[in-house]
Amino acid sequence: MSDWLYQVRIRVSENLSESLRSGKHTDLAGELDEISKSHGMSLVCTYDAFKGYCDEAEENGVEEYALYDWTKSTIENPEKKAKHLKSFAFYRGFEQIYEKEVALSLEESLQKVGMSEDLLEIKVIDSNPANNPQPPK
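The structure corresponding to this sequence follows.
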């Protein structure tokens, strides 16, 4: 068994993103919310997480936040903002990554929903740096 931890991410349509982010759930948004809760997870929009990081840094002093400049430029770039508004990750409490078994169980539940014009991608990623782009130094 590897020492890597995992995260499940989904890519969704603009309409589904708006429904998930607003809490005014369509049927599919409600189903995704129920799946996340049944696995002890919450569904977090990547853009909202990035914005929250920047807001926190600005409140506490950006010099203590190594990725502030990169994150701020990402959310201010219209193309990247649009991309990250449609990207969601499943968090377990405050943990962004978790054991493989947890990730695979969540992925299986999501696969049962199936891909559609609103649920565009389901992806399990691992924490191995060789498999993922690394943030700037």
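The first helix runs from residue 14 to 22.
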